[in-house]
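Researcher: Let's walk through a ligand-bound prediction step by step. First, I give you the protein sequence. Second, the SMILES string for manganese (II) ion. Third, you return the three-dimensional complex as structure tokens. Ready?
Model: Ready.
Researcher: Here are steps one and two:
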Amino acid sequence: MPRVWEVPVHDSTRVRDARVAAEHAAAAASLDEPRTAVAALVATELATNLLKHAGGGRVLIDVVAPPVLAAGRDADPVVQIAAIDHGPGIADVAEALRDGFSTAGSLGAGLGTCRRIAGHFELHSVPGRGTVALARVGAALPRTGAGPDAPGLTAGVRAGGVNVPFGGAEYSGDAWAWVRSGDRVTLMLADGLGHGPEAALASTAAADALRASAGLPPAEALRRLDGALRGTRGAAVAVAQVDLRAGRLRFAGIGNVGARLCAAGVWRPLVSRPGIVGVHRPGTLREEEAVWGDDHLLILHSDGLPSRWTPPPETCRPCVDPAVTAAVTVRDASSPARPVRDDTAVAVLTSNPSDR
Ligand SMILES: [Mn+2]
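Model: Step three, the predicted complex:
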């Protein structure tokens, strides 16, 4: 059952908590000492920045699969560090990433340093709405300099997500995972009933079972998951699968997991059947099919997001890192005055621009 960390950062004492969380996540991802130090430094910088530039915010730390899964390669886990705020935003992102840039009278090495030392770093800011800074730190890069995002190792799509435990708990009852089998990539989001460790056991079992059914179509995968979750509390689960060669998306879901597909800026929901995976599976399970192309984007989310939430048109941007889109979604669907009332996970699947 993987840990997740949410560290609210509203005073300087919490910067240390963010660093310690990053060190724990690095241990969970089996990073070596130098890469652990990188994760700790990035978490420290991002938490410090929240205080300096945004009047506070929160740092989410998680161990995730890499955003691109290459066929035949084991998915080495990476530490994902996301700093989310509702601050004034950054008018000039490129300028803010320049080494030595500062607006708050600091040394200003922060964001430029993060971008240089993390394996992957993204900054997304909308003036007036806030900022998401997201870093991924994995094992040391191969000596060729080819990272997991390098062309030639890619899979046509990329996925990412964030997972926010309810009330700052150690475990989230939600889990998301993605797997690849040949031309088929499958994204799953599971919301274990209730929250806390028992809910996390159910959603973790769903993620494990998905990894064992990578090539199966969504409805068949859900049948396997239903068997795997017997004896747990059960979960709401949605499974979406892209066939890269056919350019098709297939979807099936049981229970209350939101699924929305956008193409060319237009969103439409994908519909799940009522039921609880592992407890009560509907007798028949119809798969929904749709075209999948480069301008498509899929969001799966648990009901930690408000039930009437619909993605704003600007969310439909396949060029943005999927984990950043997920973090922006969580940020914009909640506010300091309107905190979420359950575990919240959002997972996003997009095409991979480096393949084009
Ligand atoms: Mn839940």
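Researcher: And what stands out?
Model: The first helix runs from residue 13 to 28. The domain at 157-355 is CATH 3.60.40.10 (Phosphatase 2c; domain 1).
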